[in-house]
Design brief:
Length: 583
């Protein structure tokens, strides 16, 4: 079938009814009749039309070289073939500036790494909306228009980590559709600002929500679909147009730019559309080329499975990695996976900017750091193409900011302050042991406990000692007053689960910087625990909560000359009042 033809068949797999659910997009339907998904899905997640999983078994039967394109008809199997638009002197609209991105030689980084091959960057941030996702957004919109699923006046809804949203919002702005983007809290404010400027409406969801929970961006988008008439989720996780956009254009451009001969291509994976589409075309036209996938530590897309084993549960690089395997990701075309980490990724992204002048984003750094590693054995004359997925515009207040990197221990800043206390450690502070509560305690009882004990924040800890969040006056107030939780709900639902952690060796200058933006930080200690005679587990134990008042009290007592008089540790109500700074 076509390349990527995700058409119909292959009913194997654990999800036995998958084949009866149409391939993406997901439509609410123009009539009031129950959609197919309503009849099929067992999981509801509060979506009246049922929950359509983003990891349904792929129905694609693509095999390299099997279905020949029909250039006259402009089809390949069940799919239409798209071509990169020619560079025009005057473009009819900005959507013509999607695709045809430049391939740029990496000079200094390649030399420093001692590479023999030619290292090249496919610069997707030059697309009109600033990322590789503009390609799939336009393709999915135009496919839906051609099939009649998307009509003037309709609403496009999409769950996305941001860049697909920007691509869709851009197409919607130019073509005149209403656009609603559902995106996790983690995604940068810069992406949100760009989306708003393009006229998109935005719904935020908790980053910690797993993909299949009712609060996930995927479930929330599907609930909106059921509520809004004439709306459509183009569904990048299952839409054949996602990998096809790259099969038809990105891969063809790379092949053309390399005169048909490329030895290694390397890129990150989110939905997997980019790597599946490029990988499939490359396997057909350049079968010896090695396809390398980059997956952040903390994600589970890489194979073999043991590569994904890690203690890391959160990463700051945006746009890649998932906690499920999206339908459009075809891992059979990936020869090798490399796991990336935040530190190497952001350092390389800064080098790409500083040394090569490429204004790329953090995941581009991840890809390039892995490319330098993967291409070590390539020979002179061979070519390695690394795909730089988005630009720095999305991250101006993130990895472009030295302070942001220092807060994450990615770089060390020379502290300009010469305060006597700057190099002292958190262990010098007199912290009271914190009181904690179980996740199941009701919100009303948590408030009673805070009042009785005089605490404004309580770590939420499971019976087995895992820290799952912090309930603060701010978090309870925010959720209760907005009607998001009731007094009888478990406190876990009203706690913050992104907060700063530090340890007893953290310097007071770093603590001071953290407290510039956070009301509190948890001081944790790693404890080793034998679970039987030979197995040992590492567990985080909270040794205290630190706030501005702890730091101020320490400094003022020492400056007054009565430093460690042991007279008073921090009172439980040790900071607070005022609005929450974290989250
Ligand atoms: C920022 C960003 N967006 C999108 C992608 C590609 O995502 P997908 O796998 O969904 O095609 C990448 C891959 O590196 C990325 O870094």
């Amino acid at each position: 079938m076509s390349p990527v033809a995700i058409a119909e068949e292959n009913m194997n797999g654990p999800k036995n009814m998958d084949h009866k659910i149409p391939v993406g997009p997901i439509t609410a339907g123009r009539s009031r009749k129950k959609s197919l998904a309503t009849q099929l899905s067992k999981e509801g997640h509060g979506c009246p039309m049922g929950f359509v999983r983003p990891d349904l078994t792929s129905r694609c039967t693509w095999k390299a070289n099997e279905t020949k394109p029909d250039m006259k008809k402009g089809t390949q199997g069940p799919h239409s073939i798209d071509k990169s638009k020619d560079r025009m002197k005057i473009m009819p609209d900005v959507l013509y500036n999607i695709g045809n991105t430049p391939l740029v030689r990496i000079n200094k980084i390649s030399k420093t790494a001692g590479l023999k091959c030619e290292l090249l960057a496919k610069c997707e941030f030059f697309n009109a909306g600033g990322s590789v996702k503009d390609r799939i957004a336009l393709r999915m919109v135009e496919d839906a228009e051609k099939s009649g699923m998307l009509k003037a006046g309709d609403t496009i809804i999409e769950p996305t980590s941001g860049n697909t949203g920007i691509g869709l919002a851009l197409a919607a702005a130019v073509k005149g559709y209403r656009c609603i983007i559902v995106l996790p809290e983690k995604m940068s404010n810069e992406k949100v600002a760009t989306l708003r400027a393009l006229g998109a409406e935005i719904v935020r969801t908790p980053t910690s929500a797993s993909w299949d929970s009712p609060e996930s961006h995927i479930s929330v988008a599907q609930r909106l679909l059921a509520e809004i008439p004439n709306s459509i989720i183009l569904d990048q996780y299952r839409n054949p147009g996602n990998p096809l956009a790259h099969y038809d254009t990105t891969a063809e451009e790379i092949l053309e730019q390399c005169d048909g001969k490329v030895d290694m291509v390397i890129m990150g994976a989110g939905t997997g559309g980019t790597i599946s589409g490029i990988g499939r075309k490359i396997k057909e036209k350049c079968p010896d080329c090695i396809v390398v996938g980059v997956d952040p530590l903390g994600s589970i897309l890489a194979e073999p499975e043991n590569l994904n084993r890690t203690e890391v549960s959160y990463y700051d690089v945006e746009g890649t990695g998932y906690d499920f395997i999206p339908t459009v990701l075809d891992r059979t075309v990936v020869d090798k996976w490399i796991k990336s980490n935040d530190k190497d990724s952001f350092i390389m992204a800064r080098r790409l900017i500083r040394e090569e002048g490429l204004l790329c984003g953090g995941s581009s750094g991840a890809t390039m750091a892995c490319a330098v590693q993967a291409s070590q054995d390539l020979k002179p004359g061979q070519k390695c193409v690394a795909l730089l997925a988005d630009g720095v515009r999305n991250y101006m207040t993130k990895f472009l900011d030295d302070q942001w990197l220092a807060d994450r221990d990615i770089i060390e800043l020379k502290d300009e302050m010469t305060n006597w206390w700057a190099e002292e450690k958190v262990s010098s502070l007199e912290l009271s042991a914190p009181l904690s509560i179980l996740p199941s305690v009701a919100v009303e009882h948590a408030i009673d406990i805070m009042v009785k004990e005089g605490y404004d924040q309580l770590p939420v800890i499971t019976e087995s000692g895992k820290i799952v969040g912090v309930a603060t006056m701010g978090s309870l107030k925010a959720k209760m007053l907005k009607g998001k939780v009731n007094a009888t709900d478990p406190v876990e639902a009203a706690s913050y689960n992104t907060f700063k952690k530090l340890n007893l060796d953290t310097t007071l200058s770093k603590l001071n910087r953290i407290l510039d933006t956070e009301h509190f930080a948890l001081v944790v200690h790693n404890q080793r625990l034998y679970t039987n005679q030979k197995d040992i587990q590492e567990r985080e134990v909270i040794v205290g909560i630190v706030t501005d008042i702890d730091l101020l009290q320490y400094i003022s007592r020492h400056e007054a000359g009565n430093g460690s008089d042991g007279s008073g540790s921090t009172s439980p109500r040790n900071s607070q009042q005022g609005s929450e700074k974290s989250n």
